[in-house]
Amino acid sequence: MKNLGVYIHHQLRDKQKVFDLLRELREDYHYRFIGVMEQRELLPDFVESHNLEDPAFPVLDAILVFGGDGTILRAKAIALATGAPILGINLGYLGFLSETTLSEIQASLQTLLKGKYKILKRMLLSCRIKRQGSFIYSNLALNDAVIYKADTPRLITVRIYNNRKFVFETRCDGVIASTPTGSTAYSLAAGGPIMSPEMSAMVLAPLNPHLLSIRPMVFPAQDELMMRVGNLEQSAWLQVDGINCHSLEEGDELYITASDRSVSFIKLSNRGFYRILRNKLHLGK
């Protein structure tokens, strides 16, 4: 492994410590570090900056992501464009998607060079907005796609279908559709179940539904979910992986399916998912 992508949190506090480490790794192991043009002003001169849309973008062996889970979600675009796996270096809070820390990075890269790692693929959701009979927007979600009421104080109405069959209608603040990877994120905070990231399924978790009988639900990955929004005084929003991506108007429909694409992550340790859960969520304590 010689070509390593670099992506950092834009407000990283330990930025100089990260840069010093990268410089040391470059001198000792002759790594070539490559960043994206949008982070050119954040990265040191020895990290090359390239346009991700450029067909000549260098082939990457792995992507080092310095930050928390949110930073890894932002780096999803690089992984999708290059096919390179992500190695998350946790500098945030929980860090469910991270595999190592800044203090462990040298040992982790040595493990990587020795080939002692696994590649784990994470499921993505395909999200498409349909307005007046035509699809007007599409995106891929690693964690979740969220219909959110935005600035209005009133509840909105979301009518939910599975494979074109009516499931339920609810007045709520919004609805989260998450992958198993995203089940430990926003969906968990909304009362959704924890799912192993190795599963193929979709979680639907309403946000503050007005009826207590409305509960989170799990659907097979091969199904198609559709959510129609109504009772809007002003535009709602589609949020994909924590970013407001597109406004939603009265009667818009959001179609959610499992994508045929995935994002790969590097797994170095033997720490299993449930051990990580116990450590980070203090299960049973």
* Total count of helical runs of at least 4 residues: 6
Shape: globular
Tell me the total number of β-strands: 18
- What do the pLDDT scores average to? 93
From the alpha carbons, calculate the radius of gyration and give it in angstroms. Answer: 20 Å
| CATH level-3 fold name of the largest domain | Tumour Suppressor Smad4
> What's the arrangement of strands in the largest beta sheet?
3-2-1-4-5-6
Structural class determined from secondary elements: alpha/beta
Distance between the termini: 41 Å
Largest sheet: 6 strands, parallel
Quaternary structure classification = single chain
Uncertain segments of ≥5 residues (pLDDT<50)? none
CATH class of the largest domain: Mainly Beta
Strand-residue proportion: 35-45%
CATH superfamily (homologous) name of the largest domain: Probable inorganic polyphosphate/atp-NAD kinase, domain 2
Return the string of H and E elements.
EHEEEHHEEHEEEEEEHEEEEEEH
Question: Based on the structure given, which CATH architecture of the largest domain is correct?
Answer: Sandwich
